[in-house]
Design goal:
Layout: E1 5-10, H1 16-33, E2 49-55, E3 58-66, E4 75-82, H2 91-107, E5 112-117, H3 121-125, E6 130-138, E7 141-148
Parallel strand pairs: 4-5
Antiparallel strand pairs: 1-2, 2-3, 3-4, 5-7, 6-7
Length: 149
């Protein structure tokens, strides 16, 4: 298995090709694969810290992170995505660890909240997140709030 090359960038430091590739990956998974029509380009990317997981120079894993108080009271991780053909390599775990490290380095935050698709709760629990509250529908997909820290 080839290890991911992790890059952490603010919006202003993304190359146009990287922005195109990360938006394409998000659309490929969240809109097409999950058959969910929703507004992915929501105006929040400019405020996010973008965690890029690259293999052979191509983005195959990605998250966006926010400082405490922007999205939730805690720091936040969202848009957690791994290209379908690369999921068997454990890149989801690598991108989560890199995202948590970036949140600590950039924001000095230990508490992190995310809105998890319910079928992925065991994945997030393996990273120390705990379910909080009741499940809810977000864009027609069952989600649950999860917190770490």
């Amino acid at each position: 298995m080839e290890q991911l090359q992790i890059e952490v960038k603010t919006f202003d430091h993304l190359h146009i090709e990287e922005l195109y590739d990360l938006l394409q990956l998000r659309s490929e998974v969240f809109v097409v694969e999950q058959d969910c029509v929703y507004q992915d380009i929501d105006g929040k990317d400019r405020e996010a810290l973008h965690i890029l997981g690259k293999k052979a120079g191509k983005i195959v894993a990605y998250t966006r992170c926010f400082k405490p108080g922007y999205y939730f009271e805690e720091a936040a991780i969202g848009r957690v995505v791994v290209k379908d053909s690369d999921r068997r390599f454990g890149y989801g775990h690598e991108i989560m660890k890199a995202s948590e490290k970036a949140i600590w380095q950039q924001f000095k935050a230990e508490n992190i909240r995310l809105s998890a698709q319910q079928y992925l709760t065991r994945f997030y629990e393996s990273h120390g997140y705990q379910q909080e509250g009741e499940g809810y529908l977000e864009d027609g997909i069952p989600h649950i709030s999860m917190v770490k820290g």
